[in-house]
Amino acid sequence: MNEERRIEVEEVEGVAAPAKARVSDAVETFERKRDYLEGFLSQKPAEPVADEPGGDLYEAVIEALKEIYDPEIPVNIYDLGLIYHVEITPEHHAKVKMTLTTPHCPVAESMPGEVELRVGAVPGIGDAEVELVWDPPWDPQKMTDEARLELGML
């Protein structure tokens, strides 16, 4: 147990730089099988309806919001009632006003960023802005019937 360990130090003058990857090498080795952007780029932006909810672009944003789930509750944030307001401007920008179940929510730092990324990824949205508000505070009455049913509250 009382073995003595020795640390050996080796001094070197320099290290050779690794070879740089070249695109021409990769093109010869790998063949591009499918253009993943083709379907995305072929989608045309939906036209927003100014000053009122509705329209294809508005519905696409709502669908994107319904894909984001609260990590502690198995219900999406839209049906939970965390989204207070969605506005699509004439310039195709989205403004989302949202809250969280509590100011001490563990995802308070990450959830607004995720909402902004998901809404901004909707085809046709130029820019997404998320405002986190605490007034009015969230309460279970803001949940949809689907959310209440999922949580066994109906």
Distance between the terminal alpha carbons, to the nearest Å? 66 Å
Largest sheet: 3 strands, mixed
Any idea what the shape is?
A: extended
Order of helices and strands: HHHEEHEH
Radius of gyration: 25 Å
In quaternary terms, these chains amount to single chain
Mean pLDDT: 82
Overview of the molecule:
- The protein has 154 residues and is an alpha+beta fold.
- It has five helices and three strands, in the order αααββαβα.
- It has helices at residues 23-29, 37-42, 56-65, 111-120, 145-150; strands spanning 83-88, 94-98, 128-132.
- Strand 2 (94-98), helix 4 (111-120) and strand 3 form a beta-alpha-beta unit.
- The N and C termini lie far apart (66 Å).
